[in-house]
Amino acid sequence: MKDLNRDPALEQIEHEVVMLLRRADFKKTLDGAENNLFRSGYLILNLLQQTSPLAVRELADHFQLDVSTVSRQIKALENRHLVERRIGEHDGRVNQIFITDAGKRSVVKLKKERLMVYDSLLAGWSEEEKAVFADHLARLNRKIESRHRLH
Amino acid sequence: MKDLNRDPALEQIEHEVVMLLRRADFKKTLDGAENNLFRSGYLILNLLQQTSPLAVRELADHFQLDVSTVSRQIKALENRHLVERRIGEHDGRVNQIFITDAGKRSVVKLKKERLMVYDSLLAGWSEEEKAVFADHLARLNRKIESRHRLH
DNA sequence: TATTTTAGTTGTATAATACAACTTGTTTGC
DNA sequence: GCAAACAAGTTGTATTATACAACTAAAATA
């Protein structure tokens, strides 16, 4: 086996990723100042804006989350009238989740805010650099997702 | 103002970062399978391994966390005998936090495990790509940190 | 039809975090 | 030199995100 302690880039990636992850809990910095939608809700609405309706199960599969987690997140969005649910016509167990107009407006607004934050965080980066970074992040995420899929 | 919706790289970065952040709560994938040390404890021990002792306040400043947060994290590490605290000699308010030998062994072991995870996640990446990615992550993190510093 | 499978909810637990209230020391200012 | 102000930490409380287990209800299957 290769000596992992002799790969400074790898070490730095490990360190920087864990530091970045820590920011996840740090709402004010990365989630936008005045938003009233959190990470989970944002991601769900974002997906529902593209494809709606989706069942709770489908959302959970898409994000590789436990159904119970998504169930609660949907409940929170529903309480705020950002999504609606209807019982599946052909299957009474299924809850079809629809994004509401208010939900669409919310997600558009929040996305705009978030893009402004990122634009300012990445001020000074060339388009080339941003494209490369986006690609690297995507590669890492897809790999993490594929690992997760194998339990 | 530039039209942010016309910058696909920026949009992708925004999306991939939020997706990656979500993994933060997903311990099994990124924190290593059999570890018994979580993100917060790992980062603290890692720092203490380099410079020890540090006061609770100093740790909080370093990580830009609330002192109460660090106080609890230290308590957890102390319960597991990975750190020790001594009252400051010149200032009875200060708690000097020392990493123990067990703490050092733990962090070395966990770091090795984590590097193996990252090595496998980044299998197929060239050294050049890893170096560029590390640099990009570091730039983003430093920028996030500097924003945070301005409250 | 009886059994099994599937969709979703609810109970419980954990990790990480912030803010506010509090205690205990240390400085400072008169 | 003492009272007031300040600083370091801890503890109480709340929030977000999550998983796993136990449960209910509906559908599929045998």
Automatic annotation (TrEMBL), chains A, B:
Keywords: DNA-binding, Transcription, Transcription regulation. GO terms for molecular function: DNA binding; DNA-binding transcription factor activity. It holds the Pfam family MarR. Residues 10-142 form the HTH marR-type domain. InterPro entries: ArsR-like_HTH, HTH_MarR-typ, WH-like_DNA-bd_sf, WH_DNA-bd_sf. The keyword Transcription regulation applies. Coiled coil: none annotated. Signal peptide: none annotated. This is MarR family transcriptional regulator. It comes from Sporolactobacillus shoreae. The lineage of its organism: Bacteria, Bacillati, Bacillota, Bacilli, Bacillales.
